[in-house]
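hey so u asked for the seq, here:
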Amino acid sequence: MTKIIIEWKHFDKNGATCDRCSQTGNNLQTVIKDLQKEFDIEFIETKLTEDRMSESNQIIINGKLLEGLIPNTKVGENFCSSCADLTDNSSDCHCRTINQGGTIFEDIPADLIKTAVLNIINSKSPPNMKIQVLGSGCPTCKNLYELTQTAVKELGVDAEVEYSTDISKIIELGVMESPVMTINGKIALLGSGSLEKVKEIITKGKDTAPVEKKSGCSCGGKC
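ran it, structure tokens below
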């Protein structure tokens, strides 16, 4: 499942924030609730002090500012009466705005947030790692697949995990047992393994030492 990290920065004073930030927060939660059915979304809320007001109401998606993910979008600012009330600074309290296609938004609408998230998902390059768990469909094979999915999620690595019960694929690898876990087409694990073992193999991010291919005869292929 694709992992998306969304950070929302906003000014906070004794638990209170300005009206425009508050509405952005509500819009953001609506988008997260909608998208988390399909994607693994981690939400980070960063509360800012007054000296960092210029960063307030920023949304950062996988390390990139929202305005950089949507064409024809730029940042501006205007007077914010709500922040002025919170800071007791009625003369010079300006907050960020988003200008998208000529329209200025003081709070960031849900449709812009969703567009930015989908744009970064659709622009992602192929996974750095393809992991396959091959087996007969037995409980041990399914368990290794589930452990692999858990390991990838907990490690946060960019990997595609696939499960196959096509025995011909195992035969092509030259082994006579299952389950088999491969990374980028190379054997990484034969048989079952613990979650920590699977995480260790994935973390290395490279092929394991060549696994001896087994034949159906104990002569080692000399007959």
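The first strand starts at residue 3 and ends at 11. The chain is about 30% helix and 30% strand.
lmk if thats what u needed
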